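Journal club prep, notes for RB
We'll compare a predicted complex against what the paper describes. Inputs for the adenosine-5'-diphosphate case:
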Amino acid sequence: MGDTAVLSPTLLREHPLPEPTGGKDARGGVLVLGGARGTPGAVLLAGLAALRVGAGRLSLAVAESVAGPLAVAVPEAGVLGLPERPDGAVAGPGDGVLDAELARADVVVVGPGLDAPAGTLALLRAVLAHAPATTPLVLDAFALGVLRDASDVREAVRGRAVLTPNSTEAAYLLGSSDAAPDEGHDDGDEPVAARLADAYGTVVVCAGVVAEPGGRRWRSSTGHSGLGTSGSGDVLAGAVAGLLARGADPAQAACFGVEAHGLAGDRLAAAVGPLGYLARELLDELPRVLVELRSR
Ligand SMILES: NC(=O)C1=CN([C@@H]2O[C@H](COP(=O)(O)OP(=O)(O)OC[C@H]3O[C@@H](n4cnc5c(N)ncnc54)[C@H](O)[C@@H]3O)[C@@H](O)[C@H]2O)[C@@H](O)CC1
Ligand SMILES: Nc1ncnc2c1ncn2[C@@H]1O[C@H](COP(=O)(O)OP(=O)(O)O)[C@@H](O)[C@H]1O
């Protein structure tokens, strides 16, 4: 069992984020796949978080009935419509709709706002078929709910994904859907993030702990219970994706993402109180707290 290092200011300063100096192409493009008819906002939160941490370009793909409204809500993004079922769930990637976007994206996020297994699996398989094998993936929400039993997808994402489960999703990944692990720990001392990293061969961020397969792990020095608010996990997943897009490696993106997300919450708590700030308000804090993390 390895030790868990605290993400101290010194440790983060020793591993500075890449600072690409070119235009938006140098800072990478993020594609977010998600957004059932009832939950397009999750994609907005994840996508804007990616831009707020410095990604250069943003594309969003959501259920076709909400693609138009989402394009208006996020004028900074290109938005694609995906086929949907009568209940509003995303049915899958559609014939060739995503192929060019997947080939071009520097990072692909799958999951925010998805709410049904079949369409989610079809999207994941399209990503694996059409995105270059070197493209990093961030998997959240239902993309995590279906991962345990999809052995082809599970094998293919080893070494190239960052998983960002909440406690319910961690329970699905561990195969115990009726017993969610509490705050990053099961009943022993081994953080859930570390167990999942070893089981899935990916970097995992869970309840403020980042783990790599095989041992290294870090605990955020920031954050508090007010961060447990609707949409907070979508912001975290998008922030990790944006940091990957600007050139961070998976563990670095996960560490800076969780630390910046936590510090953004701490800043809001100081301004408005520990509870009741909104996930969307975290977005505006992200650029400021990334600068602060460089200079603390
Ligand atoms: N404005 C919005 O559109 C928002 C959308 N959200 C989205 O809402 C969804 C649910 O988020 P919650 O935080 O409530 O999630 P929960 O904490 O209830 O966890 C639900 C998770 O359980 C798993 N799961 C449940 N039923 C499953 C099944 N039949 N098969 C496989 N896995 C299953 C999936 O991994 C799923 O993501 C996510 O897609 C999330 O992105 C929320 O984040 C809130 C904001
Ligand atoms: N009580 C807490 N203390 C510290 N950080 C927290 C707490 N609750 C949530 N967070 C942070 O916020 C992130 C997202 O919260 P979570 O409730 O898991 O989101 P979601 O259900 O939207 O995926 C967590 O991964 C963690 O980094």
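Talking point for the session: Residues 39-42, 112-115, 117, 141-142, 144-146, 166, 168-169, 172, 230-231, 233-234 surround NAX (ligand 1) (CB under 6 Å).
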